[in-house]
C-alpha cells in the first residue's frame, strides 16, 4: 500500500469538483471495512469543519438486488449532510453530479436518541416519529462505478443527494415489509421492489444503523433522518429525467434531474 488514509480522503474530496478517481486499491484492500470507515470519517470531520451539518445517516447495500449489482454481501452506511437534501418536487442541477443513479427507499425521522449498541427493530420503532417515501441519489466518485466494498464505504456510501416525501406517516399500522415500491423515470417503470428488500424490513436496516453507530460512539439522535436502503435496483440518470418514487401505503416523492 502506497497511499495513506489521508491521501485517499483528499483524493475523494477533490473528485467532487475535479471528476472521478481510480479505485482506491493503492491504499485500501477491497474488503477492508475498518480502513474504509477511517477514510470516510476523515472526510466527515473535514466537511464538518467546512460548515456542513450532519442531519442523519443512510444505510446502503441492504437489498440483495443492490448487493448483486455491486458484488458485495454486507450493508454499509454513509452520512447525510444538510446540503444533500433536495425538496420534494425539486430539481437537481446535473452540474452538481458526476454519474448519478436514483434509488427508491423508505426513510424514518427519529423523535428520540438511540444510544444502545444492542438496539432492536422494536426499540427503533418506538423512536420513529414519521415514515416517508424517499429517493437517494447515489453518485460514485470512483470512475465508472467500478467500486469494491471498501471504495463505496470510503466514498461516504456513494451517497450524494436525497429527498423525502413532504407527507410523512406515523409508523403505527404500516406494513413496511409488504410495501410495494415502484420508481418511474419519465413515466416508465424503471425499478420495482418491496420493503422487505431492506434486510427483511426497513426497521431492521434502521436498527443495524443504530447499533453500528452506537458501537462507534456516534449514536443516532432525535431529529435524525434515516434512509433504510434501496428497495430495488438503482437507475442511472440522464439530464431531463423526471423521477417519481411510490411506496404503497406510505407515499410518493419526485424530483427532476435538470435545470
Ligand atoms: C452504492 C450505494 C448503495 C445504496 O445506497 C443502497 O443500497 O441503498
Automatic annotation (TrEMBL):
Q: List, alphabetically, the InterPro entries matched.
A: Fumarylacetoacetase-like_C, Fumarylacetoacetase_C_sf, Hydratase-Decarb/MhpD_sf
Q: Where is the Fumarylacetoacetase-like C-terminal domain?
A: 94-255
Q: What is its EC number?
A: 4.2.1.80
Which species? Answer: Sphingopyxis granuli
State whether keyword Protein biosynthesis applies: no
A Gene Ontology cellular component where this protein is annotated is: cytoplasm
Q: Which UniProt keywords apply?
A: Lyase
What is this protein called in UniProt? 2-keto-4-pentenoate hydratase
Q: Which GO terms describe its molecular function?
A: 2-oxopent-4-enoate hydratase activity
